[in-house]
Amino acid sequence: MAVIVQKYGGSSLADIDKIKKVASIIAEVKKSGYDVAVVVSAMGKTTDSLISTAKSLSSDPPTREIDMLLSTGERISMSLLCIALNDLGIKAISLTGSQAGIITNDRHTDARVIEVRPFRVQDELENGKVVVIGGFQGVSYRRDITTLGRGGSDTSAVAMAAALNAERCEIYSDIDGVYSADPSILKSAKHLPEISYQQMQEMSISGAKVLNAQAVQFAKEAKISIYARSTFSPGKETIVRLLKAEVPTGVIAVVHESDIVKVSLTLDDNNTLEDLLLYLDLHQIQIREINYHRNEVTKSDIKISFVVSVKNIIGWDKRKEELLKKYNNDIHFVKDLGAVSLIGEGLNRDNSILSETLKLIRANKITVYGITTTTFRLSILIDKKLIEPCLKLCHKKWIEESIEIPSNV
After folding, report:
1. Would you give per-residue pLDDT tens digits along the chain (409 residues)?
2. CB neighbour list of residue 88: distance below 8 Å, 6 or more residues apart
3. Is the dihedral of CA 47, 50, 52, 54 positive or negative?
4. CA-to-CA distance for 11 and 43, rounded, in angstroms?
5. Spatial distance between the Cα atoms of 340 and 371, rounded to a whole number of angstroms
6. Which value, in Å, is the radius of gyration of the alpha carbons in the chain?
7. CATH number of the domain located at residue range(s) 253-400 in this protein
């Protein structure tokens, strides 16, 4: 029997009535003749609440204990959903990430799935049961509970779909797919019926919350299509899949990310880049957009800069304090930054899109703190207080209509 993997986010499971509704949706799919595996997130804002509780006890809680704490949220969701399904006459069983065979590395709070052994899931599906799996979690090869980082339930779902050779993976949330911008900010945002894996990955990396970037990578490697849908407003959807290579499409979306810190520092023979990277990796701080420059005259001093998305880093203030102590006056932090990113294809084939965007931003007196370009993304670092006006300007320019740039700029 063909398998469908579904994932339901926290907003879809926020209260008992919504859990009952989700159970009825799953029941209909099961009755239509499919085997169904379901991956769930924690109810509503449970994860945020648990993190807040941990921070009330310590500004730098051990990441292993954070994983033990956060993994409880999904266990509540999966148990309640199974109770609701059984009440509808649908046999269902809940499994934790470890029971479902999701094996990860031993990096706490931001683990990576390295293997899925779905034997228990397959056994239960063959017995006619709906299998409800706690998303966002797995078990390391050291047998510690791990979590996969924000949006990790998407990764759980796609990884499980690949392991089960599922027909498709359906991701349900409170949004009916992917839009050209955040529809809660821009009412003019356009729904995208389909999007390529690469474009979706760049959107996710740059702040779009619809899908997790690692999940899209899994889907791309396994050639599994992802259907992004709304739980309670069916109709539209976005299909993420391999699209035929065509003429570059230009800008298809404008996304944003806030709470970015830019770090700049000078290194010498006593403080190498390798030492810095080792420290950052030890504390699980992911960096992006790294720039490296060696003084061509002295051949010694090295200046580097990079950006860090600090929103979901537990203990960032402690890390910043340690870095200041280690590097003294040689390190500088620019906080309260954000990024607006143009997403498309062939964006760096020439300089026209970047040039026109910079003219637009300068005409509106927005300071640029950094620029990154790839084939699929053009990101501009700005003051986070200016994200919304910058987002609206870029969306209007590249997606809605052309804006005339003042000739004297």
Report:
1. 899 999 999 999 999 999 999 999 999 999 999 999 999 999 999 999 999 999 999 989 999 999 999 999 999 999 999 999 999 999 999 999 999 999 999 999 989 999 999 999 999 999 999 999 999 999 998 899 999 988 899 999 999 999 999 999 999 999 999 999 999 999 999 999 999 999 999 999 898 888 888 899 989 998 899 999 999 988 899 999 988 766 556 899 999 999 999 999 988 777 888 999 999 988 889 888 888 888 766 666 789 999 999 987 888 999 999 999 999 889 999 999 999 999 998 888 888 999 999 999 999 999 999 999 888 999 999 999 999 999 999 999 999 974 444 444 3
2. 23, 24, 27
3. negative
4. 7
5. 10
6. 23
7. 3.30.2130.10
**Are residues 30 and 62 in contact, defined by beta-carbon separation less than 8 angstroms?**
no
Contact 62, 29 (CB under 8 A): no
Nearest to 134 by CA among 192, 73, 84: 73
Report how far residue 85's alpha carbon sits from residue 250's, in angstroms, rounded to the nearest whole number. 45
Whole-angstrom Cα distance, residue 312 to residue 315? 9
In 3D space, the residue among 339, 287, 284, 289 whose CA is nearest the CA of residue 315 turns out to be 284
Delimit the domains of the chain by residue range. Answer: 3-243, 253-400
Is the CB of residue 60 less than 8 Å from the CB of residue 315?
Answer: yes
265 neighbors 333 (Cβ within 8 angstroms): no
CATH architecture, domain defined by 3-243: 3-Layer(aba) Sandwich (3.40)
Q: What's 16-64 look like in SS3?
A: HHHHHHHHHHHHHHHHCCCEEEEEECCCCCHHHHHHHHHHHHCCCCCHH
The one-letter amino acid code at 408 reads: N
Taking CA 344 as the corner, what is the angle to CA 339 and CA 349, rounded to the nearest 5 degrees?
A: 100
Q: Is 149 left (phi over 0), alpha (psi -120 to 50) or beta?
A: left
SS3 assignment for 201-260: HHHHHCCCCCCCHHHHHHHHHHCCCEEEEECCCCCCEEEEECCCCCCCCEEEEEEEEEEE
Residues 8 and 21: their CA atoms lie apart, in Å, by: 11
CA angle 399, 174, 288 (to 5 degrees): 60
Q: Are 138 and 152 in contact (CB under 8 A)?
A: no
Which amino acid makes up residue 117? Answer: R
Query: What global pTM score does this model have?
Result: 0.87
